[in-house]
Each structure stands twice: as structure tokens, then as C-alpha cells.
Amino acid sequence: MEEFKKTVEFEGKAKVGEMLGGLANIQLKPEDFSSPIALQMAISRMYEGILKAFEEGPKKKYIAEVRFTDSLGNQVSIGIDLGENPPPFSKQEVKARIIIELFEENEE
User: Where does the source fall among the domains of life (predicted)?
Assistant: First the structure.
């Protein structure tokens, strides 16, 4: 059976910046707003994460926030870890090419 692949390419923009390494995991999710108790638990989780990050000391990371519009017109935002060394870009905002490949793995 021949394998079917579908590749789609999007163009977007990326904003390159710095982030303290330990703070990358501190985030709110949509389900954190489902009830007052869920929000309190999320705030507690974030507080513990912030304390842990400061105990371990600052580790600077470079990240890129990539934004593009999908085939249905929805705004999509993803983060890319660029490592601990400054990326070789001359500007803070750069272009991004997003390639998505859909395929089914053959189980043999």
C-alpha cells in the first residue's frame, strides 16, 4: 500500500526574546479558569514554580514566539526554544516558515 502524505506550509512572524529558564513551565491553561478552585490551584502551582526557579538561580534562555494564521483563519502561536546562547539574528522580529506534514505510520 502506498503511503499518503500531505504537506502544508505557512508563513508567519517570530519574535525572539529572552526568558528565565525555570519560568518556562509556569503557565495558565484554559482549564485553570473552569472554576474558582481550579484558578486557586493554578495560582498555587505558579507560585511554587516561581519559588523553585529562584532557588535554582537564573538560567537565561532564548525563545521565539512564532505566530501564524492557519488554513481556517485561526491565529496560532507556538514557542521555540533557541537554547542558552544568543541566536545569530540581527533583529528581534524575524520571518518564520512553518511546515506541517500529515502522514500515517505503517505498522509492520
Answer: Archaea
Q: How far apart are CA 14 and CA 91, in angstroms?
A: 10
Q: Are 14 and 80 in contact (CB under 8 A)?
A: yes
- Residue 26 and residue 107: Cα distance in Å, rounded? 37
Number of Cβ atoms within 10 Å of the Cβ of 66: 21
Hey, which residues does 12 pair with through a beta bridge?
68, 96
**Measured between alpha carbons, how far is 102 from 7 in angstroms, rounded to an integer?**
6
Ordered strands of the 93-103 beta sheet: 75-83, 60-69, 5-20, 93-103
What is the domain count for the chain?
1
Residues 8-57: pLDDT tens digits?
999 999 999 998 766 666 788 999 999 999 999 999 998 988 888 778 77
State the residue for C-alpha cell 473552569.
34
In a domain, 106, yes or no: no
> Domain range spanning residue 25?
3-101
